Amino acid sequence: MTDARTGLELRIDETAQQALSSALAAARTAQSGSDAERLADAWKCAYGRDPDPSKAYSEAIKAVESASTSVNEPSNGKATLGSSLEW
After folding, report:
1. Under 8 Å between Cβ of 73 and 41
2. % of the chain at pLDDT higher than 70
3. What is the enclosing helix (H) or strand (E) of 69?
4. pTM flag (> 0.70)
5. Burial of 67 (C-beta count, 10 Å sphere; 0-12/13-18/19+)
6. Could you give the CA distance from residue 17 to residue 50 in angstroms, rounded to a whole number?
């Protein structure tokens, strides 16, 4: 139950919450595409009201791919995680 007693609350480990906050802050300040949005979507799909583990995994992979390609191949609009790893 939440403090306001308005609903249930899932408790997430504080370390995980801090890691998410740090990653989102870094993604938002970087000159990257949709890293922060993808990461936030992955978190919501994993821990939100209606969890969707498959979509959470998919969004997390896309967040990593977006972050990696924006750092390693910023001028390549069709870069993938595979091509970024070859870089």
Report:
1. no
2. 77
3. helix 53-72
4. no
5. buried
6. 19
